[in-house]
Amino acid sequence: MILKAISIDDEPRAHHVIEHYAAKIEQLELVKSFTSPLKAATYLKENPVDILFLDINMPDMDGMSLLKTLKDPPTVIFTTAYDEYAVESYDHEAAGYLLKPIEFPKFYKAVMRVVEVMHKPVVSKHEPAPKSNAFLLKSGTKMIRFDPDEIRYIEASGNYAEIVLEDHKVMVDHTLSELMEQYVPSNFLRIHRSYSINKDYLQEFESHRVKVADKALAIGKTYRKEVRAILVKS
User: Fold this and answer.
1) Which among 136, 183, 176 is positioned nearest to 160, based on CA atoms?
2) In terms of domains, do 176 and 73 share one?
């Protein structure tokens, strides 16, 4: 199954990057590129696609506003130079939030995430749907859905906590202890009073530190014995 996609960006150079990357992925066909969001919206009314690579800051109409005009928008992968819209991207259930300059591994991962979803078998109405481990957390005035499998680590920040994902971070109105006790699954490990890591993203560890998603994090003295025992066993 080949997924069809279009790209919307007011910068021609950005299109060149996406076209180059898309050509490397056999499951993806980039059928058209637009510098005008308005022309892209007209095209989508008659030509449905599977993926929309979408810039946010553009003249005439920004990417977020464009999505609101689409009756049945495709799966969105944002391509932007600005990180301040990352939280809002959750409202659109984006498959990726890629910051420019876009790196191919991150582009590939976002596309393959969509490919995986598209290839999942349809669950019969007579069969119970698989349970999701996702949970909702309050962040300011919003409730944001998090998939624990996408969380790299969590950092305490007073009465708040910062959830670190692949391309961005989100501050939530919960303490690290609350998250560990009520929300995150058993593959999360408290290594410090300020850190909890997702063991699936552990790259290496020493007696005093671990490396998770290319970030070195200290292991607290009171946690070292337990952390070592758990990590050696796993």
Assistant:
1) 176
2) no
Tell me if the pTM is above 0.85. no
C-alpha 16/C-alpha 22 separation (Å) is: 10
Structural domains of the chain, count: 2
pLDDT of amino acid 39: 94
CB-based contact 138:173 (threshold 8 Å): yes
- The structure tokens listed for 82 are 């600005």
Q: Please report whether residue 8 resides in a domain.
A: yes
* CB contact at 8 A, 97 and 168: yes
Average pLDDT over residues 187-207: 93
Query: What six digits make up the tokens of 204?
Result: 């290496």
Task: Write out pLDDT tens, residues 51-79.
Answer: 999 999 888 788 888 888 888 888 999 99
Instruction: Tell me the β-bridge partners of 4.
Output: 29
Candidates 134, 163, 156; CA nearest to 146 is 134
The gap between the terminal CA atoms of the chain, to the nearest Å, is: 37
Backbone φ and ψ of 146, nearest 5°: -120, 135
